[in-house]
Structures are given as structure tokens and as C-alpha cells.
User: Fold these one by one.
Assistant:
Number 1:
Amino acid sequence: MTESANEVAIRTDRVSRSYQMGDALVHAVDDVTVAIRPKEFVALLGSSGSGKSTLLNLMAGLDRPTSGAIFAHGRNLAEMSSADLAQHRNHTVGMVFQAFNLLPRMTLEENVELPLRLAEVDRDERPSRVREAVERVRLSARLTHRPSELSGGEQQRAALARALVNRPTILLADEPTGNLDSVTGDAILHLLQEINESLGMTIVMVTHDRDRAARYAHRIVTMGDGKLLSDGNKI
Amino acid sequence: MKTRDLTELAARNLREALLRNSLTTLGIAVGVASLVAMLSLGVGLQELANKKLSKSGLFDAVFVSSRANQRGFGRPAQSETATREPAKILDDEARQKIAALPNVVEVYPEIRFPTEIQFEGKPFSTTVAGIPPSAKTEGAFDGMKGNFFSSPDADEAILQIEFAKDLSNQPDSLIGKNLVLRYAERQALPAEPSPKKSDPDKPSANSTDEVTGQSPGFSILPREKTFHIIGIVETEPATSVGSFGRGRLLIPMQVAEILRVAQANDLRGLLRRSSSKQTYESLTVRVKSPSQVKSVEDAIQQMGYGTFSLLDATKSLRLVFAVFDLFLGIFGSLALAVASLGIVNTLVMAILERRREIGILKALGAADRDIRRLFFAEAGVMGLLGGIFGVTLGWLIGTALTFGTNVYLHKRDLPPIDLSSVPWWMVASAIAFSIVVSLAAGIYPASRAAKLNPVEALRYE
């Protein structure tokens, strides 16, 4: 089953992910079908343990579903080799995490360059690509700083620049404001909105903040106990 | 990921845990050093033995006799038919033919005779041996006092130390003095029907050359010749097989030949042949290098003479050293094996420490292969650095051992030796071996890192 890239950016088809925890089988994601259109900004809402992050990881190709299929631009991630999944993570999606996940011993510039190294982008081309991504998140003045020398908001902007540098079509954000105060968090969400609008980038953002989800996202998908509770209603 | 990026990241990771990685690298270096030190000692001793043996003049020599069925060490006896062929005469013509063979340095007979000398009016009996010019490079003359013969036909003599002690309480003072050699000259009789005695005053060198093959005998005349003592030698040089250290008064071979001293085999030769032409019981053929002994030996055998060389003996010597090197190598490798466990340990620790980093790299698009190569590169760099450092260290250990040994030898008035040897192939193969061992040690940690689940790795704090 394939989809045209124009209609759907990423789609899960009755996807499940369960794992063994001691004697119990935990259904982290249970039979979820959801489609995200290109250029859409979707908020994946749910309380902790609802399976939203697991679903995001499945879309990112960091994890494989127990059953079902996930299509990214028409290609089924469930059937990809691990090398192809790595390509998917490198080229098709960009990821932002709650904990920023910058490499502490590298400068901002080096952190942002990392996906370009993995993508084997020509060395001559890299500086301009890095500059472009860093300018977009307005961190040009901090290029040579290490993560420990940056504020939380700056670190998340740096992570965002790193996610954008390989020009992916889909941005997956896992609680991007979870470690930030409300003002800084709003600034990050503004930035995401701007990226969504100016670059036409598809964004899937995991959050437990219903209020913010309603303010910034086009659509809210709610999850609970691994199941899809609601899709498309701004509550 | 491209190799250059991989190398940069690996180097960065190694720098970040500098102390631990340095200690691991040092461990490899010590392992490589022990391997290199052991092997260099083995190779050094082997080279030393080879040098001494080749300088002994035994391994680059072929001994030729008129008999065609000479047996050699470990060489099967030739077929029985060979013994029935008439013995070929080893004369001057044959000597020149052999000398004309390729790779032959010189051909000389064995000249050694017991005789008497006069020194400061007193008689001493001794054995005189003719020494060929090529003997100069032999080990026996290495530590000699005084000089080697100034020319192949100089009337000079070198004394063996024990004989020198017989002559004087202070052997060193003998150099520069003269001694008189008394000997019996063999003089061929003319071919006339009624043989007449040669004129004793006539110089001996002129008379025998005119003698024809018809001459049936010779006479023996007492002669005297003065020699200038120019040197004293510790050991007695071997000029031929079976003549180890039997010459105590050494004179140039060419001079010894001109003397035409009557030797034991002259009588036998007289009975056996009608000719009084100079014949030799045996000849020693000096070859340019031991590797050419075989071809020269074959060529002489083709001419119909019996040959003998110590070539086969060197083969078993090489085997002994190969086994010796192997044992030293195994002991050296043990240290390297322990060092490789250090690599495994360091890299496994690095996986635990860098779990999150591996997760991040995977989230950014690093394939399992990239992670594996990264860890491999780190192991390889540690192996390379450890190898280079270890070779240097091993060389230093070998040099220190040589230095220590030479200090010890110097105290005992012995010549210095090169105890250890680090040839270029050992440097290259030790570094290569170090890298290979390090990479092998990196296999497990690298594949474990590559298989890390990125979701779990990212959750890890």
C-alpha cells in the first residue's frame, strides 16, 4: 500500500508497539492509524505513558513497530533495513528532544554540522549550510560556544538548527518546551510555527500542554493508554 | 560517514578521555615493546652468529679434492660407480680452471708444515700455515695486535699468541722483530737420464718452473728465510676443513707456495704418478658469499672433483634460530594479548559512558555501520599509536641491553657486539600487528555499540 507524497507526509496504519516488561506485555502503542499531511503542524497530545513519544519514535524510525505499517512519503518504515532507517532519520526527518541532546564537548557549530557529516555532505558546502540553519534560529553569535555556555532556550534553538541543517521535510519534536520556562518555551514554539510557515515543513510535536497545543498547532491528536483517543479536533 | 569525518570524530573521542585512552595505548605500547625487544634480541643474536660464522671462513668455502666421492654432512654418499672412476689429478691447470669460475674469489692449496725456527739464536719447533689474502676479513684477525700482511707476497709473519708466549715473556714486544724460518725445499730433478743434484745456491723459484712432466722425482734441500713479525693473533684461523687452529706461525699463502716446502703428500704423489708436476691433495675455493657456494660446488663437481662445504650445517642453524625466534615471539605476544584485553575494557567502558552520545548519533542518522566504524577507528588509532610508541620503546630496550652487555664485555677486554637488531620489516610488522590486534580487540565493543537501541540509549541519563 503506497501513498502519494503529495497527499500524506507520514501515515501510520494500525501500528502497534508492545514490549515485555518483566512478566507483563506492555502495549505502548496499540493499533493507531493516523495520517499527517505535508506542511501540517500536528500536536500529539497525551499524559505521560500515553504512548505519544513511542509513536513519535516509530515515525522517526528510531524504533520498529510490533505490527502495522508506517509510511513516510510512501515508503514503509516497518520494512526498511536498519541502514535505510538511518537514511530516513538523516534525510527525511529532523528530531528535537526535551533534553536538547546536544553533544556537550562539541561547539554549537560542530553540533549542527554533525548530520552533514553523517550525510557525507561535501566539506566545502558544510559551513554555508550550518550558517543558514543557525541564522534561521537566530544563534549566529554563539557558533563557537559549547552547550554548557548556552541557556536552555539557546540549546533548544541549537538542537532545532541541527534538526534543520539537512533540510528534512518532517520535523519531529518530543516535548521541545518541557525543560524550558514558559517565556522561552513560547519563543521556541513561535520558531516552530515560523519554520512551518516559511519552509512549509511538516511538524509533529509531542506535548502534554493542551493549551499550547491549541495555540500553535493546526491539529491535535490525542492519545491515552497507547490508543488514539481523538484526531483533528481543537478542543 | 566518510573516513576523514570518522577519523576526526575518533580522534576527538580519544582526546576527550585522554588519561584512560593514554593508559590503554601505553598498555599496547608495552606489549609491542616486549614483542619487539624479544624479537630484536632473537634476530640480533642470529645476525651475530651468522656474522661470526661467515667470518670464520667456513661457510663461504668449498673444499675440493681429487676424489670424486667425497661425503658431506647430511649429504648422501654418491653412487658406487663414482668410486670406480679414476681419480682426477688436482694440478695447476685445474686450479686455474676453478679460479676462473664465476663468483670464485680465490683458490689456494692447504699449506701447513711442521718446522723449526730460529729466534734470537734459539731454535723453536712449530707449525707454519699459509694464509690467503681473503682471510683478512675473517673473525680470527678481528682483535689482532699489529697488522695483517701488508701485501700477499711480503716476507711477514703473524704469530699465534700461545706461540708468541713461548718466544717471549712479553709477546707484544715481538712485533717488529725478525725470525728465521728453516724448512725443507722440495726441488724437482731435471728430466735427464742421469739425474744430477741442483745447485743449492740457485734461487728455488727459478728451477722448478722449467721442469717437464717427464721428471720422475725430486730432491729435498734445507733452506732458511727471514720473516718480519708484524702481528699477533688470539685465535688460530682455520684455513681449510680439518685444519682448525693448527698453524701457529702464519705467513702469506703466496710466500708459502714459493717456498715449495716438502709436504707429506709429495711422497705419496711421487709413488702414485710418474709426473713431478705440482699436484694438490686438496684446494680450498673461497666464494663471494655463502649463497653462491652451491652453484660453485656444482660446477666443480662437473669438472670431476670431489667437493665439500658446510652449507648443510647452516641450514640446521637457521632452523634452530627460527624456533628460538618463535619462542621469543610467543612470550612477547603474551604481553600484547594482555594489552588487547585493556583495549576491550576501555572500549566497553566507553560504550557505557557514551551510551547517550551513541543514541544521539543514531537519532541524527548514523547507521549501525557508522557507529561500528567509529569504535573500530578508535581501537585502530590506539593500536597505531601504541605500535609506534612500542616499537620505539622496544628499540630502546634492545639498545639498552646491547649497551649494558658491551659495558660488561668492555670490562673483560672483549670486543663489543650488536646484541639486538630492529630491521625495518620488524618495525612495519610490529605496528601492523599492533593495529590488527587492536582491531580484533575492538570487534566486540564496536558491534555492541552498533547494536545499541537508540530509544533506550537516549533515555539513559
Note: Residues 69-84, 194-215 of chain B have pLDDT under 50 and may be disordered.
Number 2:
Amino acid sequence: MRILFHEIKKIFTWRILLLLVIANAVLFFLRIEFHISHFPNGRPSLDSYRIGIEMISKYGNDMDEEDRRDFKKTYEVQVQEANQYLQSNKEFAEAGVGTYEDFLNIDWENKEQAALRDKIMFEEQVDIFWELPERRRLMDFHETKEARVGTYKNGANPRQEARFDEMISAGHYQVYPEVVMENFKEFIFNVAIAILVSVVLIISPVFMKDRSRQLLDLQYTTRKGRELYKTKLAAGLISTLGVITALLIVYFGMYALNNTEMYFNVPIHMFIDSFSWYDPTLLQYMALTVAAIYMLGLVYALLAMSFSSMMPNYIALIGIQVPFVIAMITYGLTYLVTRIINIEVPQWVVPTSYSGMVAVSVLFIIFMWKREKHRDIVV
Amino acid sequence: MDIIYYECKKAFTSPILIALLLLFASYNILLIVSTSDRREELKVANQLAGKYGVGITDDSMNQFREDLQHDLVKLNEITRTDYSEAELDFFTELQLKEKYYEMANDIDNRYDQIDWEQIGESQINMYRFSGSAADTMKNEYIKLSLRFEEMKDNDEHKMWFFAGDPYKMHSFLFRTIFGHVIFESLIIIALAAALITNYEFENRTHLVAYTTTRGRRLMRDKLAASLLTATTVSVFILILTLGTYFAVFDYSHLWGSSISSALNWEYKLPYVSWWNISFSAFLIWSILLVYASMMLFTAIIFSISIFVKNNYFTFFIFAVFFAVALLLPGFIPASTNLIFIAGYNLSQLVMNPHMFLMGNSSGAMMFKNYEWITICAWTIIVVALSYISLRRFRKQDIH
């Protein structure tokens, strides 16, 4: 146990920790910060976000016919409010814009009307005039929800078709605004990048470090002998879990600033977004992506350690991992994290990929351990 | 000379670096070949330039219109409905030619609608520039609109080129392809330069190597070797990638076309170069700028290596340096000219190769003298940095 503790301490030198913090700060400002400080990103995203909260508190996790009528009624009431606003506003009355309908039909060529429109939309940012089009958009989605599933079903393969039928018979249609879902996907994708890079950064030197300092001669002739290899492996895995957990806590702590907890218990099939194979709630989907990140982190840690005990020097160690990391970031992560249950990805692809990656990385490290047991270290 | 050769050999006998080099080069080739399906359609622009000359003049447009009408007559003669392959090709070609004709005809109209000073205003609003930064920006856009007027007078933009919308060949070549080349070269160069510089420490030969007659002057050879290796790597990737590109896409009659060609209008704004340069000149300038940046980056990596003496940290510190320089302008208040000065850095430069020498860019990158000032300023910084690190190494405790 004590040796394990010391090995973990050897991984987290102050230099590596400093580099870890700086690298994450850079990646944060480069890729993550935007999805936190710009959520919701202007209007009508803000209105979409607000209307979503209102819908969830009113209609819950299931929006039936009556709810949709109610939503329509809310729209009509708000149109009346808009009418009143316009009528009580002298400027609009003079410009000949007395109703919301007139407002929608404002002629762009008419300078006076266009200026008034810009004034309440952009300068004063009157809420109802931003909310109304957003509600209208959602109502359009509500009216075409069956047709949309139908279009997707037409181009689907038998398995996808069965899934669409299942959704139709359960009455699962996309009715809630998508801002939160989209934002979370962007956020978690970039968090996955930061964590992947951090894991590789921390774990890669594990075996290389002692070997390049020629410590192995000493270490392998102690009573513990070559078993130390396994202790270092364990130290590497524990450190990986620690780093992933710490970074997830930090990043999700920032994500909490987005205030999306009202959405957490809504099943993801309610959002106007891509279709999925399963029906988790948003919170369950988040948990799934987090599990995926842990899995990827462990796989990349195992790979990093295998390379660490194989490569002749640090340059080769970084060099060989560059293609793996870049390939994962540019091609893999969308499938393995954000689109993990997306209906466009065949149902078997994601579980198979994960099983394959885990199998390869575990076999690789076992092979490396077998090799280490007999390796001639006096070279 | 021998020593430099042997130093280079250290990088070029590393199997991983060679493997990376080949992997990246084949990836680029694959990337280019996989987009070659639009090759057939792209031929039309080349044909037009070949037939009517690369410049679009009133005469050539008249000639073009006559030919089009002639083709239309031919089209009407075909009354059968079971078209042959050649006829179908003729239809699509005619359709494309008509589109090019319309685009060429519309140039004056579209260019007259552009008001650069107004675009400058909206840029200032968008990035919330104020104070002296806003003034600088305004002045620069006044200069750009003068340049734009000059362009409209001498008709340099009236040249045939691949239609920017929908093909976006400028972005594909100078953003996607060049971006890949830059990023890939940079990774290999960073690894190679660090490998060469720290080789003696990594392999515990430093006590021997630095006590020979050559002694610590060996570091100078290592710098030269790093630069030479970087040259070889970038030239190799560039030649293979651009070679494939120009073998796949035919530019034969378009080399002399202007880089600010009005047909090359991809997004909201047309490409407006500060100088009247042709496509081939722009290509050469881009290659030179990329090459100069690579050399400067190599020397920076060399200096980091000397200070850190650990390859692992060198690589990541360089990556952080690159990214921080990229982020830098974002952290500076947009009220002073400091924000533009921060933009004059190599990371900003190499991240936007499609905007080299262009005025329709944003931030400091749109300034007329951006490219050469960046290169010159950083040459001075890098030379100083290399000098300091070499000096430092002379007295460093290497035990």
C-alpha cells in the first residue's frame, strides 16, 4: 500500500500538476468557456430556454393534446398582449401598425415601420415580441411532429423503423425546445477532449520515467521485484480515475452556472433534437456521457501505459500517441460520447467499439506485463 | 558539416517520426482524392479561361454570349428524349457556363453594393472596439475602401476562377489543405527539434559530447540541424500534398488569375487582397509565409528545449505557448491598440492561411502590413531568444 501511495505521488509531481492546470485552462478558454458564458446564446435562444422551463413546469414530462391546446392558448393570449402593447403605443398607431399581425407584415422598405420594429426588437428588447415567434416555431413543430417522424421512418432501415414505430405507439414526439440539449452536447464533447488530453498527459511518463533514469536495476532487485510493474499500473489507473473525477467536478461545477436543472428529469425524446435508441431522461443521458468519458479515459490510460513501457524515449512516446488522440478527437468522440445512443448510429456500433477498445487495451497491457517479467533490463 | 548531418540523422532515423510523416502525408492525399468528385464540374472555369483569356473584358463577354447562344440553338435542335451520354454532359456544361456568365455579368452590380467603411463599422460593433482601437480600425477600412476603388478601376478582379459559391476552392486549398500541412508539420517539427536538442541528455551522452573540442558549441549545430530537419519535413509534406492537389485539380489556365477574383466569392464578402497578385504569386507567398513561420517555431522549440531540458515538457509547453498566443487577443480590452499588437503573433498567422494578404479578414489580420510585420517582429524576438538560450547554455550546469 505504501509503495502504491508513493507511486501515485511520483505521478503527480508539481510540474505535471502545473502543466495539467495550464493545459486545462487553455482548453477551457479555447473550447468550453463559450458554452458556459454564452448560454443561452442571445435571443431567441434565451426565450427558447425560458419557454422550455415554463412548458416543463406546466406540462411535465409528457405533453398531451390538451397541453398542446393550452400552449396554443398561451400563444393567443400573448398575441392579445402584443396587440394591446402596439395599440397603446402612439408611435406604432401612427405608423399604421395596430395589431401583431400588422407587426409581422412590416414592410422592410417602409423606413418608419422598420425603424420602429428594430427599436422594440433590438434596442428595448421587449420580451413578448421575441417570445411570440419562438412559440410560433414550437407550435409549428407540434403540428408537424407526426409528419417529421414519418419522413425519418421512410429512409430508415428495419431496426430503426421498429424503433420509430415504438416511439409513435408510445406517443413520444419531439415537442420541447432544444437549446439545453444542444448546449450540453457541445459542452460535454469539449470536456471529453480536455479530459482525454489530460489523462494522456499525466499517465504517459509512468513507466518511462524510472526506466530513463535507470532506476529499474535498483527497483527490480528489491524483494518486491518485478511485481512493482503491477503497482505502477495500479497507481496509473487510480491517478486516471482521480484526474477524471477532479476535472469532471470542476467542469460540471461550471456547467451548473447554466442553470439547466429544471430540464434534468425530462426524457430526451421530448426535445426537438436527434432521435435516440433509448429513452433516458436528460440527467440519465448526462450520466451516460460521463460513464463514456470514464471508459475512454481508462482505455487511453492503459494505452498510454503500454506505450510507456515500450517506447524508447519521450519523443517516440508522444509521437505514437498523437495519431490515436487526434483520431479520437476528430472522428471518435462524436460517436462515442455525444451521439452515444443516436439512432443514426447502428445500435451495436457503440457497445462493440467500447468492448473492442477495452479488450485491445487490456490485452496490450497484459502482454506488456508478460514481456516485462522476462525482459533483460541490463542493456 | 558532418556534425550537422549526424544531428539530423538522429531525427530521421527515429521510426516514429518517419511513420508520422508518412501517415500525415497519406492522410492529406486521401483528403484531396476523396473530394475529387467535383473535378468534372470544375473544368468549366478552366475551359473558359483557356478559351476567352483569363481576364473578363467586354469583348470576351460578348464572344462568350454569342457562343452560349450558339450552344442554345444546338440544344433546341435536340428533340429526342433518349439523350446520349455526350448530350447529357453537354447539358450540364451549358448550364454551368450560363451560371458563370451570369456571375461574370453581375460583378459590377455586386461590387457596387459593397461599402467597406460600413462593414468596418459593423466589425467595430461586433467586436466592441472602442477608443483608439476603433479609430485604428476605421482608418484601416478607409484604406481598404480606397484599395477597393482602385481594384474596381483596374478591373483586376474581373478574372475567371472557380465559382467561390458553391465550390469554395480557395478555402479548401488555403484553409483546409494548408491548415493540415501546417498542423502536421508543426507536430513533427516540435518532436524532431526537441529530440535533436535534448538528445545528449536523454541518452546520457552529454558528459562526453559537451567535453569534446566542439564542446558546448555543439548546441549551435543542433540549432542548424533542427532548422534543416524542419525544412525537410515541411518541404516533404508540402510537395506531396500540393503535388497531389494540383494533379487532381486542374489549374492550367488559372495560374495567372487574380487571387481577388470576383468569382472567388465564397461567403458574405469577396476576397480583396491588399496587393494586385495572381493566384500563383499568392500560392508562392503563402508557402514562403508558412515556411518562415515553421523556421521561427523551430527556433522557439529549440529555446524551450534548452530551458526545460526535458522532451516531454518541451512538447507540451510548446503546445501551451501556441494556444496561449492564439487566445491572447481575446484577453485584451478592446479599447486600446494593444489588442491589435497582441494579434501580431505566429499562432494567429498560421491559423488563417486563407486570409494571408487579405483585407476582408477581421481583427489585426486585416491590416495591410500584418504578415510581414508579424514575421519580422517574431524574427527579432526569436533571434534574441535563441541567442539568450545559447548564451545560457554555455554556462549551464549540465551535470
Note: The CA atoms of residues 2 and 124 of chain A lie 65 Å apart.
Number 3:
Amino acid sequence: MGAISIEKADRLFWLGRYGERVLTTLMTYFDFYDEMIDGDEEAYRIFCEKIAIPDVYGSKENFQQRYLFDQDDPNSIISNMERAFDNAVVMRGELGTYTLAYVQLALDVLKGENGKADAPVYDLQQVIDYLNAFWGCMDDQVEDEVCRNIIKCGKYLERLDLYMRLGYPARSIEKEYSKFLNRLHRSGLSYKKDCEEKLTGIVGLGEDWKEHDKEALEALWNLFEVI
Amino acid sequence: MYELIDHTENINRLLARYGVKFGIYKNSQFHEQLFPFDPLPRVIEAEEFEFLNRGLSQRVQALNLFLADIYSEKKIIKEGVIPADFVYSSKGYLPQCQGIVPPGKIYSHISGIDLVQGKDENWYILEDNLRIPSGASYPMIARELTRQAAPSTFSRTRIIDNRNYAAMLKETMDYVNTGGINVVLTPGRYNAAFFEHSYLAERSGAILSMPQDLFVEDNKLYYRQYGGSRLQVGAVYRRLSDEYLDPLCFLPESLIGVPGIMDVYRNGNVALVNAPGNGVADDKGIYYFVPHMIKYYLGEEAILHNAPTYLAFYEEDRKFILEHLNRLVVKDVSEAGGYGVIFGSDLTREKLEDLAEVIKAEPRRSLISSI
């Protein structure tokens, strides 16, 4: 195991969370964007409600612009991408310059498209491509297993959180939970066993997990003692 | 070599991809800028390079001997080679370093010596930087990219490879390491040279550390791991200034230092790269005396000369300065980084007279160069 300080473990974990937040919310955004083209113009309200961000947008057009590119909106895609980058840039030694470059490139696309995207789904596919390249490169290039496990702990925790909020089917939740536990147990991070047991119980209920979604999310949020 | 010009845009794009940036503070806000790539290299031929290599090695060797002397017996002062006033009034002289012998007896592990080529084609030393010289990472990564952009330039011509810098940095740290890991200590993400800190750590295999990652216990320095364990640190390539390094020894208000690190260093339990207190040797006033140091410590004439320089402290020099002030460059010895530099040719007669009065009143403060 390499030398990983508390600060670095925290950075790795949050890099995983913010990176995944951008990836999953962007892909979900695409679905809602499609719905708003010729269907429900106010579908963005459901999107905001599902991922628990305040609806401060007021119109479809404002949402499409601000949610993607407004750096002053703490919930926007670009703000989350900046946070991912801020956590990644201090981890150059662990990630490597070539892996880190994909986070830089994803951020640069968002900054470059800021305010001028008339076909955002087409343009922003590049952000998804770069983030997927980052995950692949990270898996291939980062030598330290603990380092990879901590990033993936953050990634899968965020994915579970979003999938649960978005009401994904049980099979998807089970799959992501299994991946999360696999990393959690090998990460060396300190966590609460009772929260894990509760989550395992709820996820094991199959489609009935949705009846306990609030409990599941609460157990997920309280899982870690330090981070 | 002309391929480099054709590929300038590509190289700049790759520099952006890899986050090759430097930070500046403007209106108290931190901004990062890409490091611009200039495709036109300054070509130094092998023979000239070898001459510079010998001259710079000689100079750095003498400066190291000066630092060893000045923080111990101070023979160079006692024997009247350098006036005591120039040492003790230097901001870079740190009495806290008196008597400390650094591991390997090396003070300036990394030296940034500024060179300038005059119209007469001769090379001159413009200044010495022995505290925390910065900038090695940029030519390293630029070389990597220029080799990709213009491979024929490198296959047709034998060009010295600079990409072994990180390996040399590791070798240097390993040589002085007192037992433990090597770390690069950065003040943090918002330091102007953060890219360099993180890149050199990555390439040299050292651990990039923030001040809060390090702590002192039982007269040893440790790196705090997240699981509660710790690793002993044997060498610190520190990229923060002397005054912020240890609040228990220097500025008590420093929030970016490591309390107690100077005690560990004093006891020989960690190497600090570069050694604290080096500022006395790269002081603009001391610069004037480096050729004297070379003669004194090495018994040799300086291979590389200082830019023609006059010190107002000496009467003969002062007379020359006052007679030719409108053609000279005046530097305040207490300033650094380009501050306190006045070009006589830019001044009105009235301002020149004012400057002459300052020089007469405070002759220790002014160093005058003809370049």
C-alpha cells in the first residue's frame, strides 16, 4: 500500500463521488432533455425533485442553460465537474498525469461549451466519453489498489444514492450495491456495520426495496464515520 | 526544427490537456493560466554547453562552501573577503541555522542560476537562486511533447535529454535521506507553482504532501496515513519559503508550516531540500562577492563572470556609479523577483539626482549593473 494521508483519502473519495455525479446526472439529464423537446416542457421539475436539488430555474430554457453551465449554481453539472477536478488535481502523484488529463478534458469541454450549446446532448457526449476514459485509465494505470478502492467507494456510493433517488429497478440497485460492498471491504475506510446490515437487508427485498427508500438512503448517508 | 513552429498549436493543446499551468493572484483572486509554449529554442552548442556546465558547477560548489562556512566558523568574514555587514544585514541570513550541518553537507541541492548572453556573445551570471528555485517541470514536459511533434529534429541532431531531471531529483533526495520516505511539501493547491510540485512528485516517486499531512514526534518527522498508521520521512523537498517552514522557529503566524520540523532537521533526522538559510548566499549584495568566494574556497578564477557590477558600498565603485547613473541598472539588494529594479535611462534628470542622493545615503542597499 502506498502512502495515503487522511486528506488524500478524502480527496479520492470525493473525486469518485463528484465524477460519478456528473456522469449519472448528465446521462439522466439527456433523458429528461429528450422528454422536454416535444413532450412535457416542465419535466425538469421532476428531475430536480428526484435528485433533490432546488428548482430555481423557472423555465425549460433557463434550466437547460443554467443546470449545465452556470458556475454560480452549486448544483450545476459544471460546478460538480469543477469539484471533481479540484479533488483530482491534488492527486496527480496517485492518478498519474495521463489519467488526470481526462478529468481536465471533461472540464474543458464544459467550459468551452458554456452558454453556446444549441445541441447540448451531442456536444456533451464528449464529457461522458472523457469521464468513461478516466475510469478506464484509472483502473489500468493506478497501481495502488487501496487508492482505486477508495475512489470506487465514492463512485459507487454516489451511484447508489442517485439510483435510489431516481427509483431504479431492484436488479440495478443489487448490482451496484454488490460492487460498492466489494470496494468498501477492501478500502480500509472506517464505516458503521449497523448501517451496512440495514442496507443489505433493504437491498435484499427485491422490488420491495422502494418501500424503504428513505431508510436505505439514510443508512447510506450515515455509513461512514469520518468522510 | 521548423516542424516545431508548425506544431505549436498542437503542443499548446497537449500542454492544456495535461494541465501545465501556473497560478497568479490578481485582485486577491487566484487564476490559473496555461504555460505558453515558444517553439523557437535557444540553441546552445555542445562545447558551449560544457563550458557553462563547468562554470555553473564551480559556482554552485563555492556557494555551498560559503553556506557551510557562514553558518559555522565564518572564516570568509574573519579573513576580510566579505564585509560582515553584507552577511548580517541580509534578509536571507537566518541565525536559527547557525551550527546546523545538513545531511550530506549539502545546502543547495537545486540551484537556479540565471544566465544572460551579452551582445559580445559572452555568458554572464545575472543572479543566483538557492532558496526554492522553480521551473524545472515545464521544460521536462515540453521536451516530451516536442519530441512527439518534431521527431526528426531529435533524430537528426544530438540533443541533450533533460527528461532525466526527476530521476536526478530522486537520486539527490535518496543521497541525503536520513531514513524514511521522500516527500514533496507543497503549500497547497493554490500555490502559483502547484503543477510543478505535483508533477515532480509524480515523476520522482516522492509523496506529494500538504503541511497537515506531516507531524513531528520524538524528534522525528512522520507522514500521517488515513488508517491511523504513520511513515517516517527521511527527505523533504519543500516548496515553501523559510519563514513559513516552522512556526515554532520562524514566523509564529505561519499556518502552512510543520511545527517542530526545524528541530528534527537540526538533529540530523530529516533532510530539507534546499537547506533553510540559503537566502544569504543568493542575496543581491552577496552576488558581487561570488567570484571572490570561488577564489577563496576553491583557489580558482571564476569560469563564468558576473554581469559587470558595481557596489556603491565601495568608494571607487560609487564614484563610477554616480558619474554614469543614466546608463546603469540599479537594484535594491533587499528586493527579489524583479522588484526594486530601476533603469537609469528611464529617469528624468530630477529623478536621477534623487536616486544619486539615495545611493549616497544608503550605499549598502544598492547594487548597480551595466546590463
Note: The domain at 176-273 of chain B is CATH 3.40.50.11290 (Rossmann fold).
